[in-house]
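Run folding on both entries below.
>entry_1
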Amino acid sequence: MLIVPQYIPIMAKITRKPVPRKAAVPKKKAKAAVAKPKAPAKKSLKAMKPWTPAEIREVFSRFRKANPEPKGELEHVNPFTLLVAVVLSAQATDAGVNKATRALFEVADTPQKMLDLGEESLREYIKTIGLYRTKAKNVIALSAKVLSEFGGEVPRTRAEIESLPGAGRKTANVVLNMAFGEHTMAVDTHVFRVGNRTGLAPGKTPLEVELGLEKVIPAEFMLHAHHWLILHGRYTCLARKPRCEVCLINDLCRWPEKTV
């Protein structure tokens, strides 16, 4: 018998040759950043030279000379319609409110007549004003409260007016000033801007500006002061492009960016 020798396979040892690493490509050096000259920091309004009492008196003397009897631009016929008009003016223009209230106040110039008109009909009169649904609800509610808690008369204290639906501190100050002759300072967006921009009364909040203005404005000017400042902000010290060239107080204004 032919004997075939057994075949035993032998596994050859596999050796892997190391793969040569690619030479690292040197990174390009980043260009040195050219330092840009820093713009000079704007001067903080609070760091500005404070107004002197003589300068403040001069400012309001000029306003008085130019407009001895300034009037608010919201049309009204009595304290109640003034209250309603101011509540409606939130986030709306005075012209837009006047357009709506001329017809409204012919039929509802008292709290009782406003309640008799009703919320649904009131909405029809003021639907051209922003947020008219909420405002209609507030006007009906404040009319009811004026009747039930104040005998149908607009209250004469800030706290009581602020307790009415839709009325805040600015509303109270406007009503107290225009209806009852109180020396209050109603700070709207125009007064806030003028107080800060000119440096008359810098403040981060309307209340800070209000208290600052009350502190520095002489009493003899306080009855009309908020009207002068509102009109100045609305027609001269505009938000985007102030009309410095026609400003009555441009020589005294502390604004670092004034154009004269």
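>entry_2
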Amino acid sequence: MPSPAETRPGLHAAIIMDGNGRWATARGMPRFAGHRRGVEAIRATAEACPDLGIGTLTLYAFSSDNWQRPAEEVGALMRLLRSYLRNETARLARTGTRLSVVGRRDRLPGGIPEAIAAAEAATAAGTRLHLRIAVDYSARDAIIAAAARLADPETSREAFGRMVAGEMHGSPVDVDLLIRTGGEKRLSDFLLWEAAYAELHFTDRMWPDFGQADLAEAVAEFARRDRRYGGLNPPKVATAA
């Protein structure tokens, strides 16, 4: 039987990385410890993607609504983002991974927008995997912003979708597989346009514990699903033995 990489090259997978805080609390640790452990899960998941046929991986790291969290936790998350950019950029470039950050940058603390731009420039030549991290991101805000830029009423769905996605620069816009960890079953304002026909996969596994086997299971389940995009697949014709 062919592997997922042979049958579904170039998948766009998106993950809502949920459960960091609950993972830490259950172990008597501060919530930030869960976020720090979650960075390790990002590394392991990204490394597993190419062999599973995933060409683009979009991760929901910090939503626009997350600014409502306690200032101490928000500050810790911003420090973690800065640390990730500083420590991971060289490895991403070495492994052929292109990094993009999607979402607003004007509200990020000083130095982070510049660090993002530097990391994106340093990894721009990567072709093995396009790793997209959503920070200060809201799908509804992205759609509103694209609509505000729309000048031609004859704009196609595809062209408008690229306006919504903005930073993808030629990568596939539509999400094939959307995964949410941590047991919740909602989209939380993540890639609402791009995930219109995505296959959804929900797991109780907390993000810090999510690994290559969990991703492989999600991709295998995706491969078994029948995607019709509102139409009907042609009937299978029985053949004589």
